[in-house]
Structures
1.
Amino acid sequence: MHVNQKKKKQLIFVCVCFVVILTAYLGFRYHMNHLTENAEDEEDIISVLDIDTSLVTEIGITGGEENINMQKDGDTWRCVEDDTFVIDKNKLQTFLDAAGKITSKLKIEDVTDMSQYGLDHPSLSISLQWDSNLYTIYIGDQNTVAGGVYYLKINDEDTVYTIENYKYNMLNKTKEDFAAEEETETAEEESDSADE
């Protein structure tokens, strides 16, 4: 009977070892498959525009009826149309970060008819300029069938890309989207009290 218990313990030990090794193997395979899928996904990402936004000195945004032109003077941005308008540097930098780095999952080359993508009369255009460099981002129609992506082209290229809806929302800005937050009356009153 003692031999039977010893064999039972050995069998349980071998089974536990087998389960541990099998679990480790399956975990390793899952991890390797996941890494391969991520690498394939990264390969599918197309770089459309990647510029150093710290160089940009002029921004132009045309969307609908509104035109916004901003120029950088030293470290300060100003609105060309309204010198009294105060621009929030953080909001502007967030916009520049979005506009300066654009990726896509779809590239359509050698397009001869931009109207099929709404790029003959874009709904939104953004220009980023410094020195003799000018990049104009044109955004056309939204394709709701393909998950709400928008069609985009850079400058006068004959290549069309798609961008996700969230990226379009990051780029589609009005002048008021860049407005600096006004001080509250309480903060102004405290400042006045401190001066007295």
Note: The chain has a mean pLDDT of 84.
2.
Amino acid sequence: MGDEPEEMLQIVDARGRFLRAASRAECHADAALIHRSVCVLLFNAKGELYLQRRAMAKDTYPGQRDLSATGHVRVGETEDEAAARELAEELGVWAEIRRVDTMLLRLPAETEVATIYCCSYNGAITPDPNELSGGAFHPPAQAIRLPDLTPYAAQILARLGYG
């Protein structure tokens, strides 16, 4: 779907309780506005993690490696729905996802309550060129040491014990 400045997101407190709605542009202009996000870590049968390479047109971390599928939770959407949507939109993958953790992420330009999901998948991956410029599988312990990993991905992989 790409970066939509007027996409309406869920503003929450540090515990993830809904407070109000705000635009994506507003959230990214004020790091004090905590909003919900999701990420899906897609693993193949060898236990390798798929890392995407973000499209150069992205407004945050263009060209950097990121978790398999990531995105914001829209107003009126659950975290589970957002995770499944992002996986389908970004990678063309429909797979059973499993919620594994939730954490508060403080990033340079934004603050998010991130819900983390995992899935196993061995089929074809069809990256959306508006979202990413490709990707590859990596052993998780090596992925966290990549120099061009987004801060978002690095914090989540560390939280899951890969760093």
Note: Residues 96 and 119 are 6 Å apart (CA to CA).
3.
Amino acid sequence: MTAEGHFAAIAMPMPASDETSRPKLQRPRQVKVPLARAMGELPRLWTIGPRASGDLLRALGELALARIRLARRTAQQLQIPDRPDPAGTDAPAPDADALTVIERVSRAIAIVAPRVPWRSDCLVQCLAARRWLAGHGITARISIGMKREDGDGLLAHAWLAVGETIVTGGDIADFAAFPAFPAKQRTSSDKQRTGR
């Protein structure tokens, strides 16, 4: 998929093909495990224990759902990037139990993402992990940022964080985060439709 196709979902304008002065926008290339190798690894699910196997199967389901949601909704509908807390307070640091869940989710998503046959790059992984963590009552925030590559390129990337803990997205030190979408103001027609 081209960069234009990837970023169409977040309504980001792309430079016209005749504009040579602007940098080209790219997304990181995702390394995929060959299908034959992934299928050969299936018997190992029985040897890693029920909890780890369950985590990998849950990651598979969450990645599939995230991919479908990303294809059917806009970035603003999916709240990407996430809006900061309206009270202006940062999320508290996760406690020990939350850190254990975060580690399990992070590890399972990282293992399964390169082994699925559909696109499951950084944004899909963020959506999957955010939904999984929300089921455990853990609030996570998706950020999208860019960094300048050698030459004229810009590299776009998404990551998920709980407080200062990065869940998916790896090393983000060189990326500058985009601001979140502004909150949508409710109109009188929205209030009439919802009855509130």
Note: Confidence is low (pLDDT under 50) at residues 1-21.
